[in-house]
Amino acid sequence: MINWAAFGAGVVGAFILGYIVYGPFLGLQRRWAEGTRINPEPPASPPLAPMAAQITALALLALVIAMTETTQALNTALVAILAVIAQTVSVGVWAQKSRFAVTVDAGYALGCGVVMILAHAIL
Q1: In whole angstroms, how far apart are CA 115 and each of 20, 31, 91?
Q2: What residue ranges do the domains of the chain occupy?
Q3: For position 42, what pLDDT does the model report?
Q4: CB-CB neighbours of 52 under 10 Å
Q5: How far apart are the first and last CA of the chain?
Q6: Which of 29, 92, 108, 121 keeps 20 to 30 A from 1, CA to CA?
C-alpha cells in the first residue's frame, strides 16, 4: 500500500528544495538564470504555469518512488531518478545552458530523489 503521507512529504519537500536552490538563499539564482539565458531579476509575480508543471513532475516522480517503496524496489527508484537527471542534462545541454546551470538543474533533480526517498524512510 502506498504511503500517501510520505508521498506528499516528498512532493512538498522537493518543491521547497527547489525554492531553496533557485531562490536567493544559496546565491545561485543570478548565475543560474544567466546560464539559462533568462532575466536574472525575479519576476514580479510567481510563474504559475512553470510552477504547476514542476509540481506535476514532482508528483509523478514521487509516485514512482512510492510505488517502488511498496515492493522494496529501491534500485528501480534509483534508475528512475537517474533517468530524470539524464533527461534534465540532455535538455539543458540542447538548450545551450551553461555548464553551471545544467549542474544546478541536475543537482536539484538528484536532491528531489533523495528527499523523496528520505520521506519514505522517515514516515
Answers
A1: 13, 24, 23
A2: 1-10+48-123
A3: 84
A4: 10
A5: 14
A6: 108
